Amino acid sequence: NVLILDFGSQYTQLIARRVRELNIYCEIYPYQKIPEDLSGFKAVILSGSPFSVRNENAPHPDLSQIRGKLPILAVCYGAQYFAHFSGGKVEASDTREYGRANLTVIKDGEKLFDKIKENSQVWMSHSDSIIELPKGGIRLASTTDVLNAAYRIEGEETYGIQFHPEVYHSTDGKQLLENFLVKIAGTKQTWTPGAFVDLTVSELKEKIGDKKVVLGLSGGVDSTVAAVLLNKAIGKNLYCIFVNNGLLRKNEFESVLDQYKHMGLNVKGVDASARFLDALKDLVDPEAKRKAIGNTFIEVFDDEAHEIQDVTFLAQGTIYPDVIESVSVNGPSVTIKSHHNVGGLPDFMKLKVVEPLRMLFKDEVRRVGAELGIDKELLGRHPFPGPGLAIRILGDVTEERVRILQEVDHIFIQGLRDWMLYDKVWQAGVILLPIQSVGVMGDERTYEQVVALRAVESTDGMTADWVDLPHEFLQKISNTIINRVKGVNRVVYDISSKPPATIEWE
Ligand code: XMP
């Protein structure tokens, strides 16, 4: 197990992902909350930080329990930390160094740079420079602009690097992490999907015993993988509830429910469409819609959960990014949109929580899903928001408008599949706009709905670029939509990236 101490860098999660990609397990802790018991850890990585070590309020945790006892790789701020507080010197750089650089000099025979050649490209992002190394420091590498790009401290397994090995632009970054973790710290590369499944299934058996568990399925990857894992551990004692909020894609409820049954899950489909539509009546404000949907879901789910006798646990498909975001050094991030599926259970349900995917990143969830034999198509599905089509229908959500959007969305998504574009896009959907536009049909003037198509590339939804779909495809889809869906006479394509535009329009 590897400990990553987070000083608030935007790249901390990326460090964890790279380590996991090496099949090595790691956990992120904020620097203020260093675990007291370090016996399970074989190595420590210190992250970068938005702070300067020269700031009065810069993070300055006591590392005496770690330093000299465990191998340390200190990245960026971490490297400056030792220089500043342990006998070296850090000063503001003349210019902020940001972007690609090359390691022009690498000291021979150092384990950290094994298999890494001179001129290797690295990614820099800092505005302070290490002018003097910490006491006992030995320079290991330099770039044209940065003399002390990497060092080690004599007599310890403490390494400092100014660049960011976790960023893709550091070409040998993964090799460097492997050198540190495997060659220097001796960690084992045994964190595989198979190992995770075996371990988790036995832990779940132990924790749950013969008690009953209830779980809400959404049709998404996370809840599905969580359900299959639990099913493997406790079988029929897992009660899955799949709620149709009437805001899903066309035919989605029926087809996914069918798939769940084929997977051997003990699942109950509940069609609560009318209840949700009722709750959405006259609501146009996006946050009001989200709240109404969230609350209705809780009511429906609670009603259903009461139907099951003696339930002890509530299972959730929470994944690692949701967990670490809530303990981030920067404090909980500002609510831009209230994603209601994080945050646990309402008090009145009084159930214990099990979250078998709590420690996994999204790509790991997919790999575990594949290991469990879940259908590729299901695992490769685009993310879909909890409030569903309600936040893609700008303005009033009515049965008729849901139906129109379902038709249009179906044509777009099926089109992406037919043109082999679906897997090239991270998320796609259609927005039904609250305006009408003028058109002509034959000799008649029409005044009908406008829809916007949206397709984005992303890795985690935090940032996204619009996808330049083939024009021929867009032309075909636009024609099909206008010809087939009565009430729509105009199709536009959203060419905005996030930031500043979010993926959803509401
Ligand atoms: P935005 O629109 O914030 O979306 O760029 C980022 C990702 O989050 C999804 N999203 C939601 N998911 N409940 C959810 O479960 C919500 O209220 C919600 N709002 C946005 C969005 O589809 C995208 O994948």
TrEMBL record:
Gene3D superfamilies: 3.30.300.10, 3.40.50.880, HUPs. Coiled coil: none annotated. SUPFAM superfamilies: Adenine nucleotide alpha hydrolases-like, Class I glutamine amidotransferase-like, GMP synthetase C-terminal dimerisation domain. Pathway: Purine metabolism; GMP biosynthesis; GMP from XMP (L-Gln route): step 1/1. It comes from the Bacteria. Catalyzes the synthesis of GMP from XMP. One of its GO terms (cellular component) is cytosol. It catalyses: XMP + L-glutamine + ATP + H2O = GMP + L-glutamate + AMP + diphosphate + 2 H(+). The active site is at residues 76, 164, 166. ATP binds at residues 218-224. PANTHER family: GMP SYNTHASE [GLUTAMINE-HYDROLYZING], GMP SYNTHASE-RELATED. Keywords: ATP-binding, Glutamine amidotransferase, GMP biosynthesis, Ligase, Nucleotide-binding, Purine biosynthesis. GO terms for molecular function: ATP binding; GMP synthase activity. This is GMP synthase [glutamine-hydrolyzing]. Its EC number is 6.3.5.2. Homodimer. NCBIfam families: guaA_Cterm (TIGR00884), guaA_Nterm (TIGR00888), PRK00074.1 (NF000848). It holds the Pfam family NAD_synthase. Residues 191-381 form the GMPS ATP-PPase domain.
